[in-house]
Design a protein that fits this description.
Layout: E1 2-4, E2 9-11, H1 14-18, E3 21-22, E4 25-26, H2 28-43, E5 46-51, E6 53-56, E7 62-66, H3 72-86, E8 87-88, E9 94-102, E10 105-113, E11 121-122, E12 129-132, E13 135-138, H4 141-169
Parallel strand pairs: 2-5
Antiparallel strand pairs: 1-2, 3-4, 5-10, 6-7, 8-11, 9-10, 12-13
Length: 170
């Protein structure tokens, strides 16, 4: 799993795709990895996840070919629900786009925006994640505190702007 920091594009490998759907549910291991990536993106600058692309190359992985995921629309719907259930607080600025290639198979593009509600954490392992270069890693307690303080300050600045606007309109 790699997020190309220059393009903010993450490519899922064939091995992970095979673990995604098990009896109409998203497999726990694959779900845990996806949630980790989504949380890391929401807690930093946002980005894209692309599921259904095979990579080649270990040092600088590049898209090699499309490896369509079966029942792509069903997968998309299941992921939406499971991400909602396993991420705290809920990430509201996430979009899913299914691109069908053949007979209900296709590629799933997930757009994760930077979140104003960060820090987010996984309810699977109770951890917060952040992007560092091309990896998603656990946040330190200091990083969690700093991100929380930054979010509170941003909200206070917005509230102050509204107060100032109300005063000038009165």
């Amino acid at each position: 799993m790699n997020l190309w920091s220059s393009k903010k594009l993450w490519q899922a490998t064939k091995e992970m795709i095979l673990g995604l759907m098990v009896k109409d549910k998203v497999g726990k291991k694959a779900l845990s990895k996806l949630i980790k990536e989504i949380i890391a993106l929401a807690n930093t600058t946002g980005g894209y996840l692309v599921l259904g692309i095979e990579e080649k190359g270990k040092v600088r992985p590049r898209a090699n070919k499309i490896n369509p995921i079966p029942r792509i629309k069903a997968l998309s719907e299941k992921l939406k629900l499971q991400i909602r259930d396993y991420v705290e607080p809920t990430i509201n600025n996430i979009r899913f786009k299914e691109v069908e290639t053949e007979d209900e198979k296709g590629v799933l593009i997930i757009r994760v925006e930077k979140s104003n509600l960060a820090p987010h954490r996984s309810l699977i392992d109770k951890e917060c994640y952040i992007r560092r270069n091309d990896r998603s890693e656990k946040m330190t307690m200091r990083e969690i505190k700093d991100l929380t303080i930054l979010r509170i300050r941003s909200q206070q600045e917005i509230e102050n702007e509204f107060k100032n606007e109300r005063r000038t309109l009165s």
